[in-house]
Write a structure and sequence with these properties.
By secondary structure, the chain is α+β, with helices and mostly antiparallel strands. It has 3 domains: 68 residues, Arc Repressor Mutant, subunit A, CATH 1.10.10.200; 92 residues, Alpha-Beta Plaits; 71 residues, 2-Layer Sandwich (Alpha-Beta Plaits), CATH 3.30.70.980. The protein contains 9 helices and 10 strands. The chain has a 4-stranded antiparallel beta sheet with strand order 3-1-2-9. Strand 1 and strand 2 form a beta hairpin. Helix 2 packs across helix 4 and helix 6 crosses helix 7.
């Protein structure tokens, strides 16, 4: 994004996570449960579960709470019938929005999403209308005092990473999703601490948001992120730190 690094956005997200911990726990535990249901309860043989467990630990979910979610997913307990669904739409300024959801009631979910979009001047799109603008990528952040660029680059690229770049406070390692876990393992095996790791949905191009649309766009995105059924919100906006700070992005 223009005027700020990816790491600045991550730090802002972490602050928001701390303020809404119970909601975050609900979302990450949904992901754990679904991952366990789809691929089994052993994280060594289920990459998706391993990533979900890492995310849950990052949100400080207690070990016993995490295990209960795995047990639910594998059938050892009452199983919630969550299904995965993706919705697409547009926000103020023509910004493309992709919403990854887990729901036990599609009618409720789509109604809440439509209301949240339209309230701030956006609208629902059809399936496939904007998803093609984004590409799934593995993103791993390493603080600069944790490793030299040369050491990190050698380790990450040998393990299958596509790129290592300078993002102000951190080195950012980018991978294909299929290589994400292997690259993380190699970095940790080299004794390098990982600050943050996630599978992100990166837009091919970003839309400059006019100043008069910034507030409504950020309010819309924050409202969507707060919906219980929405796991991840992706948008292709480009906005300065000044506007992000002014409107609480």
């Amino acid at each position: 994004m223009s005027g700020h690094s990816k790491w600045s956005t991550i730090k802002r997200k972490k602050a928001a996570v701390d303020a809404k911990r119970s909601k975050v726990w609900t979302k990450v535990l949904k992901e754990v449960q679904v991952a366990a249901r789809m691929g089994g309860g052993d994280p060594e043989g289920n990459a998706r579960l391993r990533m979900a467990m890492d995310k849950a630990r990052g949100a400080n979910v207690p070990k016993d709470t995490l295990q209960r979610a795995i047990d639910k997913g594998t059938g050892a307990g009452n199983t919630d019938a969550f299904e995965e669904v993706v919705y697409e739409g547009y926000g103020p300024g023509g910004v493309a929005v992709v919403l990854e959801c887990m729901t036990d009631n599609r009618n409720r979910t789509v109604s809440e999403i439509r209301h949240s979009l339209e309230k701030y001047g956006g609208n629902m799109g059809t399936s496939g209308s904007v998803a093609w603008l984004f590409k799934k990528r593995g993103i791993i952040n390493v603080l600069k005092d944790a490793a030299s660029e040369e050491d990190l680059m050698m380790t990450a690229l040998e393990a299958g990473a596509d790129d290592v770049r300078d993002d102000d406070e951190v080195w950012t390692v980018e991978t294909d999703p299929s290589a994400f876990i292997a690259v993380q393992d190699a970095i940790r095996a080299a004794g390098i601490e990982i600050e943050n790791a996630e599978i992100d949905n990166i837009p091919d191009n970003r839309v400059d948001v006019p100043d008069d649309k910034a507030e409504s766009l950020l309010k819309m995105l924050n409202t969507l992120e707060d919906l219980d059924d929405v796991q991840n919100v992706y948008a292709n906006h480009e906005m300065s730190d000044e506007l992000l700070d002014r409107y609480g992005g």
